[in-house]
Amino acid sequence: MEMTVAAPPPPTIAEDLKRRYFASPLQALVSLFSLAVIAFVVWKVLNWAFLSAVFTASGGPEACHAAAGACWSVIAERWRIILFGLYPFEEQWRSALACVAVVAMTVLSCIPAFWTGRRLAVVWVAGTALFYVLMKGGILGLPYVGEESWGGLALTLFIFVTTCLIGFPLSICLALMRRSDLPWISRTTGLIIDSVRSLPLITILFTFAIVLPFALPQWLQGDKLYRVILGSALFFSAYQAEIVRGGMQGVPKGQEEAARALGLGYWRSVSLVLLPQAMRNALPATINQFVISFKETSLVVIIGFFEILASGNAAYGTGEWRFAYVEVYVFIALIYFVFVFSLSRYGAYLERRMAVGER
After folding, report:
1. Which residues pair with 152 in a beta bridge?
2. What sign does the dihedral 161-164-170-173 (CA atoms) show?
3. What would you measure as the largest C-alpha separation in the chain, in angstroms?
4. CB-based contacts of 93-97 (< 8 A; 24+ apart in sequence)
5. What is the pLDDT of the chain when averaged over all its residues?
6. Do 161 and 236 meet the contact criterion of CB atoms below 8 Å apart?
7. Per-10-residue mean pLDDT for the chain, 359 residues long?
8. Integer Cα distance of 254 and 136 in angstroms
């Protein structure tokens, strides 16, 4: 007759805390000191951000000078400049709707019911077209607003979305070309990818914005904004191509051989067998690349675009609000955090759904 030994009960919360942080007198002292430092920092931040802060713009800058906390009055007074930049004041509702259209397009793309090529194409084409019509106007009774007047959050989202929309398909093409059996194709593609990856993004943006017009005829130059987007998309595609190629290398060789044995041609084996598994393998790095690309949109401020960071600089640039730059940057950082954290959490959801890392 076999004897079974009952497993010990799991430790309580108090026992677990004692084992982790108060196992010895020295460890208890370090834990209490760390807790005191954390409590002090949290209290200082809460006192500055909320308890002693000024939230209304009625008192103006003078009320902020008299207070000991944050001056959120600058946000209440200058939020339009931060979010809309140089966009005409009476037309800023269009910029707000354009941002809503981009967010709605992104949310719909994240819903599994839309995960087919046709549905995603409809969502992205319709969302991008709606954004462009709202921002530029010139039709449907909307006044025309040139790209030079675009700014704020709408411009940041436009650069990010179009960069990914152009760069992601291009990255797949580059990854497939680098794996080509023809040496002149694979080596040329590898040279292009490695050359782009060896340059900082700001160099590529500056080249496409300033230098490229000297090498192109007038009819081919286009607007500076679209040249910058093409440069950003090229940079994105070079890094993403290596991520996709790494995902392809993680697919067992037998998968391709089995596809060929079933009579599938090159394109069908790539689209139905190789790429789905490769994208699954490359999912964590792909989400990370999207996050990096969103944050890198702030670099366009160096070449003269009025995106959300430049708009924030203008919000406190006047003499009366010059002291409130910390509050402005905290507000902008919060906007970046909302978008980046949402991307990261969605990536974690996809990893759980697809069981990435599990075999």
Report:
1. 307
2. negative
3. 92
4. 94/134, 94/135, 94/137, 94/142, 94/145, 95/134, 95/135, 95/150, 95/152, 95/153, 95/154, 97/134
5. 87
6. no
7. 63 78 85 94 93 80 82 89 91 94 90 82 89 91 90 92 92 93 92 94 91 81 87 95 92 84 84 86 89 92 87 83 90 93 89 68
8. 51
| Residue whose token pair is 């946000």 | 75
162 — phi, psi (to 5°)? -70, -35
Is residue 43 within 8 A of residue 64, CB to CB? The reply is: no
Which residues, including other chains, have CB under 8 Å from residue 78's CB and lie 6 or more apart? Answer: 315, 316, 321, 328
Between CA 18 and CA 300 the distance in angstroms is 51
Locus of tokens 């989202």: 157
* Cα separation, 31 vs 222, whole angstroms: 61
CA 282 to chain centre: 17
In angstroms, the Cα distances linking 118 to 124, 169, 213, 262 are 10, 15, 36, 26
Residue with the two structure tokens 């809503």: 100
Report the CATH superfamily, name and number, of domain 73-87+145-242+282-354. MetI-like (1.10.3720.10)
Six-digit token string for 53: 């802060």
Nearest-angstrom CA–CA distance, 35 and 31 = 6
The tokens for 222 are 């286009």
